[in-house]
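Worked problem 6 (solution included).
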Amino acid sequence: IQNGGQSRPFEIKASQYERERHYFLSQFFRERYDAALRNLPTVQSGVEIRRLEVYVTNDNRTSENLRNVVALQDVGEPRRLYRGRFQKDAGPNAAAQNSANTLLSQVLTGPGATRADLQIDSYLENSLGLQKTIDYEHIRARKLNPTEYTFNAQLGYLSLNTQLLPEQVLGVSYEYLYNGKVYKVGETVDDYGPTAGQNDVIFLKLLKATNPAVG
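Solution. The predicted structure is:
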């Protein structure tokens, strides 16, 4: 407290950083973070995340809310793709959305497209040239309960209650409102539905891979 009040310096050590718990949902939110906070205490982001589904590699301690998941590194990214092979000119202020690049549409509709759990790796690698642990992760994942994480609906970041292990993968899908328009990244339950086959995969946005260079 300054200007007539009290002040006290403090320091935070680098070793106190909470690794593997906090993640931006997209490069879009990461790049807008500083600008959204330029007039604190008012947050000026124009964003409201209205729905979020979070999946983490199953730790074998539960058999509930499990799905076969393919999490794609570049899905929804208007810029800064890992290899740029699915890029299109989305514009400098383009929002994160499934149509921001052509990756998800090619995954869903390309020649030989499949959701079959036993065939998906072959399809992604041989037909689309994707590389596992770099471009995507294919896992058996558990959908987290909302009590297991928090997220900032205006700034677009996710905070897990528990630190992830190095071999665990984190994938998400979400919907948000930005300047009056609704956008979606990844597939939510509305896309694949509760009756989807348990041997089918769902496609998410990859936030953390087993490869430490990705995420």
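Discussion: The mean pLDDT is 87.
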